[in-house]
Structures are given as C-alpha cells and as structure tokens.
Amino acid sequence: MSEAAALREPWRSLPRQREAATLGIWVFLASEALFFSGAILGYAFSRYLHAHGFLAAARETNVWFGTVNTIVLLTSSFAMAMAAQAGDARLRRLSLVSLAAAVMLGLSFLILKGFEYREDIEKHLAPGAKFALELQGAALFFSFYWVLTGVHAVHLTVGVVLIARLLLEASRRELPLSSPEIQVTALYWHLVDIIWIILYPLLYLAGRA
Amino acid sequence: MSRAPAATRAPAAGRAPSIWRRNLATWVTLVLLVLLTLALAYLPLGRLNLPVALVIAAAKAALVAVVFMELRTGRPLFRLVAGAALFWIAIMFVLAFADIAMRAG
Hints:
The complex is a heterodimer.
Chain A (H helix, E strand, L loop, with lengths): L13 H36 L1 H8 L4 H26 L3 H31 L15 H34 L8 H26 L4
Chain B lengths: L15 H26 L7 H20 L7 H26 L4
Helix pairs in contact in B: 1-2
C-alpha cells in the first residue's frame, strides 16, 4: 500500500493534508466541548441551588461501575494514542493491535454501562412516577446523570464504530497507517475520554465524604 | 512540490521504545490519579472535596490533551483552537455564576 493512496484532493502533500484534517477536527472538538459544557453548566447551577439533594442523589450512583469504567476508558485512550503514534512511525503490528485493544475497551465500557443502567433502573433511579428519592433536587441530579452519560455513550458508540472501521481497513491494507483518518479518529476518541474524566467526579464522587 | 514527499518524511513520533515509554508513563499517572481522587472523595474535607476532585480531573484532562492528543508537540494553531474552546467555556461559566453572586438575598 503506497503512501500516495492516503493523499486526497486538493492537497499536494500528505503533511499538508494531515495538518488541515487535524485543525478541522480540533475545531469540531472545540464545538463538542462547548456542547457538553452547556449541560455541565446546567448541572453546576442546579447543584448550587439544590446542594443537599444533589449530594444525596450522587451517593446513590454506583461508584465501582464509575471507577472501573474510568480506568477502562483511560486505558482505551492509551491504546488509541499508541495506535496513532505507532501508525506514524510505520509500526504496523503495534498500531493494529492497539486499534483492536481500543475497540475492545470501548465495547467493555458500553457493556459495563449497560449493566449499571439496569441496576439504576431496578433501584428506581430514573426520574418519573416511581423515582426512589424524595429530596428536592435529587430527580434533577438524575436527569443530568441520564442525559450526560447517555449522550456520552452515544459519542462512545460512534467512536467504537469509527475505530472498528479503521482496524478493518488498515488490516486489509486498504488504509495506509499514515492516513490522517487514524490521527483524527484518535483525537475524537481522546475528547470523549476527557468528557468522562470531567463527569466522573461530578456524578460518582460527589457526596461520598 | 514545496515539501518532501511523505515517504521520505521522518516519522514524527519516534520509534517503538520511546512511544511506549511516553504513553505508558502517562497511563500509569492517569490511573494513579483516579485512585487518588477516589480515596480523597471519601475523606471529609468539607467544602474542599469538590475543588480537590475538580483539580485532579483537570490534571487528568490536561495529561490526555498534552500527551495523548499531542498538543505539546503539535502545531501552535491546534493549541490556539483548544485554548479558544476553554476561553469560551470560561466566559459561559463566569457570566452564569456572576448572576448567582449578584442576586440580592
């Protein structure tokens, strides 16, 4: 597979193309960060107004699911960074193995999250008629919990599909390891990781002391 | 062509040992920070629990951005975009909380 296959119109060289693609994804990630910040600002404002209810509600989340998933996601980011940088250095095997690891870890996160959601629903932690907590603000906390983790899970699912596609095409040698697509997907994956890093203390660690 | 063809370009990220070293060290630090923030969350620090958790989260996010996302070695333009995102987020939070702070009673 030649390097030239990664080059697309209108760029004259791969480094140029890569620079443009990376800048483009950074602008997209900035808009994603602002999108999540809006929801997190809503959380912060509501928590300020209903501090007691928020902390009591946060104690009901399962801190073990949250912590294990944080480590799983950090590890997947590590794998993705390895995949991108190994691809850069033309280390084919390391890059492919790392892509596969990132996909597996991303799937593990989603599976664990599914089990956690099932437990949350069984404990009536979904706001609605049978909601388990009485304190003012508790239902609000769980509204943020479901929306933030739900939207995050959607982003993660998209990421898993994108990385799986890279893995498939790179292993068939249809995608050169120098392709900007790997770098750009890695940047997206890391941002999804960063969002979880912020959500973890807000949703799982609050009110534990 | 104003630039060397890609094939002759020196790999930007170095060889396998340096890739492993840099990223593995970052991963170990990140996991240690998770364990640290988990332990500190159970210590009764009063009003300090939230700031401590947020500072550790910010440190983790910064590590991912600087090392995994290669902000440190990348183009200054990428740092500018990342900085712009932080700047706009800061405006949103500062103005929103300025509203709370200035409410009477």
